[in-house]
Amino acid sequence: MADFDLCPACAAEYTDPMNRRFHAEPVACPDCGPRLFWHDEKALLLPRADPLAMAAATLKAGKIVAIKGLGGFHLAVDALSSRAVSRLRDRKRRLHKPFAVMARELDSIRRHCRLSPGEAEILSSPQAPIVLLERLPESTLAPEIAPGITDIGVMIPYTPLHELLFSHADTPALLVMTSGNLSDEPICRTNEEAFDRLGGLADGFLVHNREIVMAVDDSVGLCVADQFHLLRRSRGYVPAPVSLPFSLPSVLAVGAELKSTFCLARDREAVMSQHLGDLEDPRSESFFRSCYAHFQKLLQSDPQLVACDLHPDYRSTRFARDLGLPAIRVQHHHAHAAAVMAEHGLAGPVLAVILDGTGYHPDGTIWGGEVLQVTFKSYERLGHLEPVFLPGGDRAAREPWRMAAALLYRQYGEFYEDNRDWLPSGWEKIDPQHRRLLVKMMVQKINSPLTSSCGRLFDGVAALLGLRHYVSYEGQAAMELESLARQAEKGVPGLETDGRYPVSQAVRDTGWVVQLDGLLAGIVEDCRQEAPAADMAWEFHHWLIRSMVENVSLAAAETGIDTVVFSGGCLQNALLMEGFSSRCRAVGLTPCLSLRVPANDGGVSLGQAVVAGTRFTANLSCFQ
After folding, report:
1. What global pTM score does this model have?
2. Are residues 258 and 321 in the same domain?
3. What would the mean pLDDT of 267-285 be, rounded to a whole number?
């Protein structure tokens, strides 16, 4: 507020110790406070226009408005208009990734989504996050908001400007409110950035002249069994510290590559940054660096050491190396487990089930479906999903058909196309030359590392079911598979003793290994018999829950440990969260899931900080 010179009336109140406004700056006085402005699609100021009326009329006409919010810009359109939402998708270059919706009030939400009392309380809380809610069948929300997905991310107004806009008669009752950027870029913070980067995208700009010091996205979460789980920790929750069960030296942890955050820990507190995006984009990397400088100044932090991932090519790892501090490298899934331990105040040892996309490990394989015994100082692998080839490396995450091919190759060998009377739906649309080349890659083990990744298993199953052969955003196939499974309406997977797909474990040098034979044979047979895809998706979830709980139960019998932490990107799946919790309790294990810290890579920085701080204090080496 220092940019706003007080008018005589405000100055008198501000300097009077007997006035309730004494030294209280944030008052929107019409004479000397912040003001609204309307700019047209060419970013030209229309000084005589009523900004709110122009914004409301533009939205009513099905056009796109860029709105300056609390932590950056939103792009808004009428959420009931398929044409408007499709226009936004085209201009934003965001093919399928879900949009969030802002509703005028809770009653507007209830007409379109199932809303429990607990979810209503979270929506109305001071933090006002986006909450994922199940869309009702009768909802008239534009289907283009979240193609192929059951849930809709919903929030209610959390700034006075939102309230003013929704109070106008012409403003639609529900608006798509998505981040003001092109896909994968950082959110626009200043008016000038928005005019430059959103020109040609927005049909008008509703702005004000109060500076946004630090860009921050909306927080996102979901309620499972009456507990709220943050999936993206940002506005409203940052920079609130996470209390630690022990004291640490001053540590900077730089997190992972995707869903990036960093963490500054000292004594018995850890402060995580807001969600910073994916560091693959140079603008996000620059944003990461500027945020770190801001937090370092804000917290008066002078780190003694830096923690980073084992992956040598992460941009965050390179940033850590450039700092010139003692560096401690922390294995990705160890960090996932340690984050949950820190949040719940668990000293360890605990067992950990980490179901993730991919995580680098020095043994030459790509981890991602692990059962570990964990302390803050060390970890030991006790079990995991059976490894399969990852043909094409990272490209397999963008093309799930590759993982379907890897699963078929594992089950039937290199001639699976020639000797089978069934192939996945849509397989004929994939270039036959590409399919043959992929088999050669696996036979000759070229650019096809082994992986135990649960995320890639989700991708492969989705492709086997003909659901998705290519994705346009991270986790798309898995999210659509979860949504499909919910259509089966069979209750919570994992609670029944038996399922359609048999579970089996094998003892290997790396521990108990979940075998894929029963799953793959069952899915192929069900596809051949044209079983309902929703039933197969549900049975897959059921199989995964039973398999991993049986695997961790074997580890519990060996170690005598009965507390199990669950983390990793796959633990954003509500069916898995509820199923693992229920089945663990049924077999005498105590489950602990992430709540205030994301289970995805957004929580990795906290785990890195506590692991590195503990090892530094104990004078241990970089890992193990």
Report:
1. 0.95
2. yes
3. 91
